[in-house]
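Service request form, structural biology core

Requester: graduate student, group of Dr. S.
Request type: structure prediction, single chain
Budget code: on file
Notes: please return the result as structure tokens.

Sequence provided:
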Amino acid sequence: MKAWLKALRYEKKLRQQDVAQAASISRQFYNLIENDSRRPSPEAAKRIAGVLGFPDKWYMLLENAPAEQLTLFSG
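Core staff response, request fulfilled:
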């Protein structure tokens, strides 16, 4: 599971539906991404990252980086 993605969504007080709609993907597909069952296309990753406020690090949605290596919450 991409726990960091879920934590970031919670921090922004967004539902999966909110993120999915703003990123022009289905809620079901977003759920699969958040649960690490599917990887988004680069285009979808950029849109999701933009919605959640990390547009410069969108590529992290395509990687399986350990949570301790992620610096989204450090500013």
